[in-house]
Amino acid sequence: MTAQQISSRTFAALKVRNFRLYFVGQLISVSGSWMQSVAQGWLVLQLTGSSLDLGIAVALQFLPILLAGSYGGLVADRYDKRRILYFTQSGAGLLALLLGVLITLHQVVPMTVYLIAFGLGIVNLFDVPARQAFVQQMVGRDLIANAVSLQSVLMNSGRVIGPGIAAAFIALIGTAGCFYANSVSFVAVLVALAMMRQAELLPMRIVERQRGQLRLGLRYVWETPVLRNVITSVALVGTFAFNFTVTLPLLARITFHQRTAAHYGLLMGAMGIGAIIGGLYVAHRSRPTPRLLAVLALGFGVSMTLVAFAPTMLLAEVAMIPTGAFSIAFMSSANATLQLNSAEHMRGRVMSLYAMAFLGTTPIGAPLIGLIISGTDPRIGLFLGASVTLLTGLMLVAQLRGTAREASTLRTA
Questions:
Q1: What average pLDDT does the segment 214-231 reach?
Q2: Which residues contact 131 (CB under 8 A, 6 or more apart)?
Q3: Which end of the chain, N or C, is more open, meaning fewer C-beta atoms within 10 Å of its C-beta?
Q4: Do residues 75 and 130 lie in contact, with contact meaning Cβ atoms separated by under 8 Å?
Q5: What is the pLDDT of residues 1-23, one digit of tens each?
């Protein structure tokens, strides 16, 4: 296969004009969002110096998804997803602007950060399932796996760009600059949405209002083994492993005694570089498989263990590269598997359960990891996440073997 063929296959979804607009707009916005994430973590540590408070701030941002994630998915199934995104992206931009103004006026206290984080969580309750389901409306079923993987590359390109800029902003002009920059970045998404051609968006079935639709979505996932297994795996990994906005600033500040945001930004940036590599790999493969998902979970657990026990800051930053690659490849494969194996009229609710498993578990995992670290060490928090991820990978391997045995028994019969 030539380099041109590889490139064409890897970036196939970008040939679709609407997705290309969306991709560029989101790249700008996601960079701003990662700036805000770094700045928020550093701001809480400046205000309180507490790992538990940092975990609470992160948790509040995802608490609405945990409590009402299915309802957000139902809204995505009932209403036009593009219109939902207009409202959610505007709301997120206004919240970032508000926090920046409060910092500038020296009116920010921990409770202010908590309330705005919770407000952003309410926005994400509706934004995440609508955004996930909107991808297939832009590119169609054949390109969905490729588009989801490129979207992961997009998210983690922002992880590379955003933290580095955030560290510079914090050092030169303070944390408020990060929130102002994030607020402005949402304009790019709104412009991209406005420039899309409605006629080129695939028509999607809109679900009429009826009683019992939330229960129906839950029963549908539970009775579909592939969906149930993937969401269970994502919930375990999301609860214990994906707490990097808690573990990494504490690793930099406590374990390696770094008193500036620069090395925290480098840790996040290294993870972002790896995530781009992982996302491009999955985009090139195009079709996820259960075996691939198991291998990626095991690789994620091993590389995260290396970060936990890295003896120096430099080695921790290096180990974050494969950690980023395996982590995002795992989540991209899980996302694409759910979208490819769910019915069109259920997709919003299925993706809301994915959001609950991945993001909604943060209110449980972030304070828990923060509490564990406060009584032990950041290395212990990271190793706990790595151990659960390894066990998840072994569980997926066991499910694969069980499925293979059932198929063999049926063939023999």
A1: 81
A2: 81, 85
A3: C
A4: yes
A5: 555 555 566 677 788 888 889 88
